[in-house]
Write a structure and sequence with these properties.
The chain has 365 residues and is α+β, with helices and mostly antiparallel strands. 29% of the residues lie in helices and 26% in strands. The chain starts with a strand and ends in a 7-residue tail after the last helix.
Length: 365
Amino acid sequence: MTVLQPTTIPEVQDAVRRAERIRVRGGGSKPALSAAADGVTLLDLAALRGMREYEPEEFVFTALAATPVAEIEALLATHGQYLPFDPLLVDRGATLGGVVAANTAGSGRFRYGGVRDFVIGVRFVDGQGNLVRGGGKVVKNAAGFDLPKLMVGSLGRLGVLVELSFKVFPRPAAYASLVAHFAHLRTALDALYRLNTSAFDLEALDLEPAAEGALALRLRIGGPADVLSLRLDRLQAFLAPGAVGFARLEGEEEARFWRARRELTWVPAGHWLVKAPLTPARIPALEERVAATDVMRLYSVGGNLAWLAWPPTTPRAAVQTTLTELGLTGMVLMGPPAEPLLTPLPGAEFYRRVKQALDPDGRFV
């Protein structure tokens, strides 16, 4: 395996022109997506980092693709701003480009949307070494084909991201969380449906299976510190009819919990971690299939995304079969390096045409 480490955008262009087959790596926080096999050139972008522009008063910034998200977050925090889609694996070295390419948003995307709702501009190198720009550096930009959104979740198959522009939001002054416990899936899902259609301003809403069929809803709110307790009271009263118990998290304990959730520390070492979009209505069928197994589950974003941690002894084919029979798609985020998509994604013909236009020689594996 050949490893190239370009330090400038022109060097990235030259590397793409010279290599026959390429896989891109940023911070290496998602090894299942960035490991290269024999005969594939690994394009290590670690040196392509740094903030290019930041205008706090305009709530936008532009940075090179391998800039660690941790550095971006630290700078934004000095101006009371943040990335609301809650990028994953920040402490493990996740980069801006990796977050976009893998579409890795966390529980905090519930209120404001995911990566695609905040990336407003991209520059990337296509399969022929051309530098392509899409979008821009301002929020109100409707010119041309929406390449920024096309690159979200592209897994490095359409081009090498080298520069990205994002919009940001003011960060809430404080946070607090409520944990509501339920004895049965039916009552937990009923509460989830009600919350999804309620007027409560929630920063995050996750459903987590517990022992012996019990479940917990974890709700996060943000805003002025002096009103958070009253808002939790109202949430608790709203959920009281079906819940069997409550707990509250505030201050440093609350921050630690959501940081651990963002860093995926609940996933045991060596497990396959599969990301599978779904809807709350499809949770019962999935639970029926895996509840009696050793598969760990987390239903995030109001029940619209399942994180499934499969034991390392589980054959890949068994994971694929489970998802296919349930009509779900899946992407491996952690696990042995292999094809990350477990099931065919919809829109294959559209993808083929875009791939042909941006990478006609099939350089990007």
